Give the backbone structure.
Amino acid sequence: FCITTNKGNKDMTTKQADATLPVMSFNLDKIKINTLHGYTTEMDPTKMRDCVIPISDDRKLSLSISTYGMAVDRISYKIRSMDGKRLVADDEISSFSNKDNTIQADVNMPNVMDENTEYLLVFTITSGQDNVYYYSRIMQTDGKAAAKVVEFAKKFHDETFIKDDKSFFTTYMETTTGDRNTLAHVDLTSTVSQITWGSMAAAQYTNPVIALKEINDSYDVVTIDYVMSCVDGKGETEYYNVREYFRLRQTESRMYVLNYERTANQIFNSENSFISDSGSVMLGIRSSEAEYRANEAGSVICFVQEGDLYSYDINNGMIIKVFSFRDAEGIDERENWNHHDIKIVSVDEAGSIDFVVYGYMNRGTHEGEVGTGVYHYDGLAHTIDEEAFIPSKTSYEVLKAEMGKMLYLNEKNEFYLMMDDSLYRINLGSMSVKKVVEGLSTGSYCASESNRYFAWVDSANQYSSNTIKVMDLKSGKTFEVKKGDDQYLRPLGFIGEDFIYGQANAADVVSDAAGNTTFPMNGLIILDTSDQSELKTYTPSGGYVEKISVDGYTVTIDLIAQNNGVYAEIGQDTI
């Protein structure tokens, strides 16, 4: 019977494929820095600004590639101006050694870069017919000075694991004003005991990944990422993703620590004890803002911890790792690269989950791509269906900023999300994807707190439009707010589900030589989105409205006035 009824229906269920892409890094005075992960599609290099590689006047660049068994046929690179428009250099690395799955190469970079000027650097590894791309910035600067900054950060990092001698930190610590009861976030206002992990028997589990993020005359920025392990009181080993952030200034006499911050987030392990005596799920050391959602009955709770999605069935005490890039065996530097995040959309009574994974895909079908995947987890079959995947050419950081602005699922199984300055609608039934609005720019749109309503103006003329469109994502219907040609409109925000917009006289809107536009509004209107009736009109008693902010049911209004042709702040008002 099964053979007959399933004839022609191919089983598409498969295990997520392992990570395959090589990892590239660089050597700065024998210290490994700036680990780069590969992309299988060409990205917008102007949006890929993760780290900067310093080279000295000799222009020698020492690189290392962990191939993980991938055959490397060719390595080439391009150098471009920071706007990406001007090609500065295009060359191939003619000679490199490959031993024990590690490639080493010393490259003489061309003498075409101005000193202390940043450029975009793109490496391409060719393996057969496939290309893998690696993005960074590069600067010809004082390499020895950069090496000293990195050496100091590494020394500071090493000292955090030495509890006996705390004298190293006394020079750099500030007055203790921070929270003394946390190890999730420590800085120079914490205690030295917190800096050295308090009573935890902290041990470094992986080698530190050091990255130079910024190099300038005022300060340098260094980050160090690693996995820390600790055996708890029950004899269970716990693992933590740790990031250290340094902002350092180097002088002839000493190194100044302008800022130091360390965050620690536990990698959740359901095999360890995780239920407290009161029945709470204990996520361990982490930031307080957890992504979680429960079904209507409260019987199934889903939560995200360090890029993993878990589902906990309270009634039978069963916990399931729904989605993770990490394998069960050990911690792979590619699988653990935390440049993605998960948003939970809905949880039903059977424990099925709709969720979104966005950012860099560490492994699987979309390995090396950046984008947004929409998934459905079947709580009965325990399988995941990919409903849609929308690729992007921008970085995870840009996606993360956009993703928090719009996520909405209506009763018609239509899912809305923001990505790459566009509003997408994904029909989870037909698995069709439609771009509803595109070309959006900052200030040209806003969404209600529930994300049900979305308002926008045409971004091509966002400062000179007399029409605003407002869409109800629950019904899919759109209405317009329109004024005369002498009035320009701008969407400002929502108070609850009520829409707030501003209007300005067309003659008052001005742009300076640098392209900055001043939009002095002569009034605000609060609109009922259900019937488009005006609930309130606000007119400033003096000057103009510059911008607003909404907190609960209070609207704070920043006012400006013109003096000798220049607009200046004159105070605030509230509604």
